[in-house]
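Supplementary notes for students who missed Thursday's class. We covered one full example, reproduced here. Read the sequence, then the structure, then the short commentary at the end.
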Amino acid sequence: MNPPGNETRAAELLRDYVESHGVACELYAKVPERANLVARIPGRGDGPSLVLLSHTDTVLADPAEWQVDPWSGEVRDGVVWGRGALDMKGQVAASAVAMASLARDGFEPAGDLIFAATADEEVGEDFGLSWLCRDHPDAVRADYALNEGAGERYVLGGRAFYTCASAEKMSAPFRLRVRGRSGHASMPAIADNALVKAARLIERLGELHFEPELGPETGPLVAAITGDDSIEPRDALARLAAVDPLAVELVEPSLSMTVSPTMIEASKKRNVIPASCVVTVDRRLLPGRTPEEAEAIVREALGPGDYEYELEEAQGGTRSALDTPLWDAVESFLAEVDPDARVVPMCVAGFTDSHWVREAFGTVAYGFFPARALDAETSARLVHSADERVPVDDLELGVRFFRHAAERICGVPR
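Structure (token representation):
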């Protein structure tokens, strides 16, 4: 769990497994208890490289909310239960099994096949992929990458789709520091309550409305679901709702910037009116949009007042092209295992570690781990929640896909 992480235990377990099947491994650690595993099947040097990205840390879990021990890995009726089953130890395991089985089969790729099981994705304090890209770039540099973020199977309007995340929004949180004047809570008229003033600003943030946009990912996604490639952005949600309400849940977060106040800090004592109040706001921007553009919109909505605007560190907001050999590998795999379905691009509403390799190396990175045994709606509600679980059949499907992608991307010369 992260915090505190302690991912070295997972990295060592994975190293012991893949090394036992003849795959060379290295552990890279900024501090001893937070190691990253990098395993590699070397290529001949005449083809593109592929990295299977994953992270070994998970969010916390409250055992009181679960039907099983969240760290048991219990298997019930072909389903593995436990924290991280979906996010993303299931994909970690499938990547390890794909590497091991390819090595056993004598796979000799043209380009390197890499498996990176990294630390610290859930908190992001620079112990994981960000640190590797900066301090050990040659360990994780690759032409193509497969990561988490999508791959669920949806049936919408009688048509089957698998999502493939080719982009992600930027996380650009900010704080509002509201000023007032302190005083005794029994005499509110002689003070200037920063918390009350902050409440008015929070209401204005809650009333913000953004015009929808159909970008390189959401445009094709909406067209595929509705069967109409001429829909105007302002009509997209209504047209999606007419097909299936689930389609709205899938697409709506990626149509515009989102602004969500999530934390507030004011007085430390009940009888003291606060002179200062800090409001923390989670904000996600579409790829290509900047924090400066977003700040102007927020300031206009808030208007003048006794507050300071403070941008926190912005991350993500990257995309990869769709016309690539890796996209072809996804399509060709689905043509084999589910020929009536099609793959559609999407923009992840949150963000993943994919942006580190896109920014550092220009890597074409997709989030795709195919899942069809567990329905997409249930899966979305289990991530970071109680009773997280993954069917063994979906883990096996993921292994098959990783083997297919490795053979398609790394197995032939340029």
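Commentary. The domain at 8-156+317-409 is CATH 3.40.630.10 (Aminopeptidase). The first helix runs from residue 8 to 19. If anything here is unclear, bring it to office hours.
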